[in-house]
Write a structure and sequence with these properties.
The structure is a homodimer of 229-residue chains.
Chain A (H helix, E strand, L loop, with lengths): L2 H7 L4 E5 H7 L7 E5 L4 H13 L4 E3 L11 H10 L15 H9 E2 L5 E5 L7 H13 L3 E5 L9 H10 L7 E6 L8 E6 L12 E5 L5 E3 L2 E3 L7
Parallel strand pairs in A: 1-2, 1-3, 4-11, 5-6
Antiparallel strand pairs in A: 6-9, 7-8, 7-9, 10-11
């Protein structure tokens, strides 16, 4: 939680969010009322938040990580547009997104150019995702993977591994972080491109695949920026 | 500043950093002593921090944004390795990196897959950077540009514009944010791929180039995630 969130928190009357994320924030609630909805009800959440704000209430719509990275910020603005309420006061407060939270627990894998790719094909055709993986691998970007695997979608991460292996050696370091800085204990594993899909991976895991320069240094995964020591 | 920084701040005895960043943090100093060095003295800074920590002091090495994104985290671990001190206690605390800070001021441009590319060729050959720009443009990644321009390096951002124009229409939204959430007033401009290099851009500017779906919605720049409203 950033200082900016702490500053506005006292004024918030309603917290609107996915029920799992509302649980994460529960220890910080004082007088705020909760509006929690289930998974995939993003649009309902926005409409309810806008309705409450239209009545004059101060409303916080929450995301995990950063609301601006695969989070609620975009759909909220789209809903405001649809309802003709684009002039409604809105502040988007950035948070620590999973890529940088995970990186901080792994060491320093994101010291160089990187790509962020979600493997969720609910809203994006798989062909688009696959093309991006191929180009990011070819460009030697460090690759940060969001939503790597769900119960109904287990093959995509294997396909990603095969594509990246066409461009990088099997020993390329790969970091896996589960529940990065979410309050619970995070689990952190450093492995390699050959092996990483043998380890447990789920929707709460962030996967960071090193580039050609990434090294394992002691317990850390580091992509050197290029300084000569 | 995140809650985690606030928690450890009281224990910090020395703050080591680039002098410009030390100035940004000066309002938060209480008892902490400052070790400020000039630009490009990253290695000296790390060695001094390690020396102080070896003497038993609690030392904070600071970066702007997130120390894990083109920041001090990597070189610090490399210095620890060189000095045989990898077991020294080290906590890397993530911050809000310029990409997501800028995004929050523009609206919601990073709702979909994105690439982060630095145009600084001090430590990276320009050919590598150019290749990454081309592949990111081809992959329809939203492109976030760090270090877009310095006094001695003004052409790279023009080259980037020309490459991206081969893959995206001139009207593609582009956001420019100067001093994103640094404490001073940030300047925010939303323009397009055709025009953006006519606006003032310097080393403190973050440039976000939309993908094929990015739209300007009122005063916001938004990349829809794909929800059907």
């Amino acid at each position: 939680m950033t200082q900016r969130v702490q500053t506005v928190w006292e004024d918030v009357e309603f917290v609107v969010g996915y029920k799992t994320y509302v649980e994460l924030i529960r220890p910080y609630l004082t007088h705020q009322k909760i509006v929690a909805t289930g998974m995939r009800q993003e649009i309902d959440r926005c409409r309810e938040a806008i309705r409450l704000a239209s009545e004059g209430h101060k409303v916080a719509v929450i995301s995990s990580g950063d609301a601006g990275v695969y989070g609620m910020a975009g759909i909220l603005i789209e809903c405001l547009e649809q309802e003709g309420l684009l002039n409604m006061p809105l502040e988007i407060i950035p948070g620590i997104t999973a890529a940088t939270a995970a990186a901080s627990l792994l060491g320093a894998p994101l010291m160089h150019d990187f790509a962020v790719i979600s493997l969720s094909d609910l809203l994006t055709p798989w062909e688009v995702i696959e093309k991006r993986i191929r180009l990011a691998a070819e460009g030697d970007f460090i690759i940060t993977v969001y939503n790597p695997k769900s119960q109904g979608r287990t093959k995509h991460i294997e396909t990603l591994r095969e594509i990246v292996l066409q461009h990088r050696p099997p020993q390329t370091p790969v970091g896996l972080v589960r529940e990065a800085l979410r309050g619970n204990e995070s689990s952190v594993e450093i492995t390699n491109l050959e092996e990483f899909t043998k380890l447990p991976i789920d929707m709460l895991t962030t996967v960071i695949i090193g580039n050609s320069q990434t090294r394992i240094i002691g317990k850390y995964m580091v992509t050197p920026r290029g300084y000569v020591l």
